[in-house]
């Protein structure tokens, strides 16, 4: 079951990559902000349908949940907008590398301290090695 | 100015990993589909406001855009859904490393064949070595996670 979660996460990455290649094209015709608007618009429709037919959870939990845990959508918009603004200044290559490094370091910090309701797991040397390997890979690609 | 921009982009990476953590926490109580739906909905509301004030493009041109370009919305949704499934099971670091590896590998393939009108950048030995390092990274994360699980259980 755990293997499956790793495979799903890799698949998520491949979807993201195809998505950004295609949205790059769409952004040129309708504009960048409009493209992300379209993404969230269609996403809401698709997930709305999936929820109607397959939703087994509890959407009403939204009202009881701590307010900070509702910030997922806003964080996504901050991310997207930051990318759109920075690409013209420093280029796609540096933008992606910087985003990924920020993402990796922050993941380590969040897990280490158990922030944002994530189960606390201490940083160990394997995880540090993994992040170093990722940074080497990034340098080699660019 | 460039340094400022790079710090700004670093912030983008930080929000992305904060997002996956928030998702992981929320989905344990509310369910996977519900979490993804809520994220899409709140994102939509925010973007609507942003578009009204700052939008310079034309949303209506969606109607005349080629269908293959529009199909990317399914991929965007799949990404969010799959990452919401993965975080509670394998943790934030493992999910992010696996997502990034998948993303970079497919980007290299897209570059190599020049799909979607992108620049053609051939897969050379440097990129192959990079691929190897990503596989090593996932392996280390897997082992690191297994070890911290054993320590919490004992």
UniProtKB/TrEMBL annotation, chain A:
Any Pfam family matching the protein: DMT_YdcZ
Keywords assigned: Membrane, Transmembrane, Transmembrane helix
Instruction: Tell me which InterPro entries the record gives.
Output: YdcZ (IPR006750)
User: Record keywords: Membrane included?
Assistant: yes
Asked if the Swiss-Prot or TrEMBL record annotates the protein with the keyword Zinc, the reply is: no
Gene Ontology CC terms, in alphabetical order: plasma membrane
Kindly list the residue ranges recorded as spanning the membrane. 37-56, 68-90, 96-118
Official protein name in the record:
EamA-like transporter family protein
Q: Which organism is it from?
A: Virgibacillus massiliensis
Automatic annotation (TrEMBL), chain B:
A GO cellular component annotated for this chain's UniProt record is: plasma membrane
Has keyword Membrane?
A: yes
What superkingdom heads the lineage? Bacteria
Annotated signal sequence is: none
Mind telling me which InterPro entries this protein's record contains? YdcZ
Keywords of the record, alphabetical order, are: Membrane, Transmembrane, Transmembrane helix
Question: Which residue ranges does UniProt annotate as crossing the membrane?
Answer: 36-55, 67-87, 93-113, 125-142
Q: Which PANTHER family match?
A: INNER MEMBRANE PROTEIN YDCZ
Name-wise, this protein is: EamA-like transporter family protein
Organism, by scientific name, is: Virgibacillus massiliensis
Q: What is the lineage of its organism?
A: Bacteria, Bacillati, Bacillota, Bacilli, Bacillales
